[in-house]
Amino acid sequence: MIYSPDLLKLMGTNIAADLINENHISNEQKLWRHVIVNAMEDARATANDRKTSIYKFDAHEWIMSSRDFETVCWWANWDPEDVRTQYKKALQNLSIKFTYKQIAWRDYYNLFNKLKRAKAAEDRKYLRHKVEEARRIVMHAKMVAMTTFFISVTA
Description:
The chain is 75% helix and 3% strand.
């Protein structure tokens, strides 16, 4: 498999060496390593469309705070704290950025999901208004990058 130099740099020398040299004990280990690499690629996405923004935030949250992430790292024979440390460094040095538009899409998506789950008519009416407002914010959001917000909130 071919990896981008930016991704390999983001992953750090030990993990990059495992990937380049294909130091996989088994096919299962190779699979779990590629799950982590895929999440890192999703988090590096720069597009500002709805789908990409949601995938980006899902990957970010999975890497930063999921026990499943830790389990997958151990299955990949990588220390989850090493992977997270590399990810946090990428956030700090702006290799991974979140734009206002991506943040607005995430907020819209979360509100929309609340609306879908709401049972009471009054709740649905309130959430429908909030979803419409969030949609307007998305349409006017700038594509300027934000960074430290995510480091401090999820660290």
